[in-house]
Amino acid sequence: MTSTDTTGAEQPQLFMFAGPNGSGKSTITTPMLADLPGEYINADDIARAWRDEIPDPLERNRQAARLADRQRQLALREGRSLVFETVMSTPEKVALLTQAKALGYQTTLIFVTTSDATFNVRRVQQRVILGGHDVEPDTIRRRYEGAMTLLAAAVEHADQAVVIDNSGTEPQRVAQKFDEQLELLAPIPAWVTQRLDQPWAARQASRRTLRELAGTPRFHTADAREGQQYSGVLVGRTAWHLLQRTAQGLVLHDLSLCLVPPVEEGEPLTLRYHYERGKLSRTP
Question: Which residues contact 123 (CB under 8 A, 6 or more apart)?
């Protein structure tokens, strides 16, 4: 599976398999890996390889997550295609999509979830019985809520996306995005309407509002990676986005990926992206 850019050169690709713990990401991902380009990066695989070297599971998982992040960043800096899994419960993982697009990647999101975190808790418990790694039930529920809250933002920032409901005995593709159009696939579960379709529609309306306010359809989305900074004037904001006029042109910021200081339209604004353990944080 390859893609070319406007110059005809092969375009690097990023595939992000995302979803809450216990959704069945690995089960769905594994058969697809042979057909996907680039390096496969999975913190769980790293942690399993360190089981004897680092006995404490919490420390082992933390170190594995840090190494996986370094491997992802190295691949992006070198322009190599990559495939990785993530729970996507914090904004910094969604920011990876904006970073990759700014670097010229084609980005694909495959989001696997269930209709309720109870499914995820039970599946992780079953996984532990079979020798898999454990995750505390409260952590699963918290991460479930975080990932579902970020779903519409992730779909917005991906070039293409597939959303899979894995609540039943067989995975069901419930939504897909191609050519900037979101399509829901029947039968449509209630959670898809609430968690994806409604916030997606609100986000699209937000973008239209800011285009009309700026008087132009042309702006680019901010690269939300750690440390990126934009200075300019606030043009306008909605509940979902902020539009800023910079020396390089109009920049659209996703408010789920940044914290914005109090400022009025027409006033100067410097916005710097910063995360602590994946969560939004003020610049130190």
Answer: 22, 23, 24
Hunting for tokens 């680019």 — which residue is that?
A: 220
Residue 4 lies in a domain: no
Would residue 201 count as lying in a domain? yes
What pLDDT, on a 0 to 100 scale, did the predictor assign at position 280?
A: 95
Residue 6 lies in a domain: no
**Report field, pTM of the whole predicted structure over 0.90:** yes
| Ranges in the chain, pLDDT < 70 | 1-9, 283-284
The CATH number for 277's domain is 2.40.50.140
Give 179-198 pLDDT, tens digit per residue.
999 999 999 999 999 999 99
Distance CA 231, CA 229 (A): 7
Strand partners, 254: 241
Domain assignment of residue 117, given as a range:
13-206
pLDDT score of 1: 53
Q: Give the C-alpha distances (Å, rounded to integers) separating 76 from 60, 108, 228.
A: 24, 15, 15
Strands 268-272 and 275-276 come out as: unpaired
Tell me which residue of 31, 42, 113 sits closest to 83, measured CA to CA.
42
Helices and strands, counts by H and E, the chain: 8, 14
Give the domain-ending residue among 181, 206, 231: 206
Supply the pLDDT for residue 5: 52
Residues 146 and 265 in one domain: no
